[in-house]
Fold:
Amino acid sequence: MKMTTKGRYAVTAMLDLALQYGERPTSLANIAERQDLSLSYLEQLFSQLRQGGLVNSTRGPGGGYTLSRAPDEIAVSSIIKAVNEQLPKTDGEHEPCYMSQVWNELSIEIERFLDSVSLADVLESVEVRNVAERQQRIFVENHLPSI
Structure:
């Protein structure tokens, strides 16, 4: 199963915020640059994430976004649901096929799994940490004054 772009971008951006948890607000422009995502697309996603109660926004100089609660309290499934991303299910538009029951059961298991995985769980991965450190290093290098 492959998650759609909308869901992946939302989870990726929320992981970026989770890495900054407890610090000052993070601008969408910084997230967009670090994650190589479209700023206008992030603006749309963050509107939905804010409405879903997953992020807080701060206006003005030094403003940006922060997680609304700790990374271990935000399930990956809640992010996907906040951006109106449907978890895979068979739809009622087609006549049931031989595999309908299997796909429905798989959907239930996927949702149960994503309910059990928090942002903090994802950040425990060594691979995720390595990518985050590389992205931050590149971001800082790109913003150092030229001498």
In short: The two ends are 48 Å apart (CA to CA). The chain has seven helices and two strands.
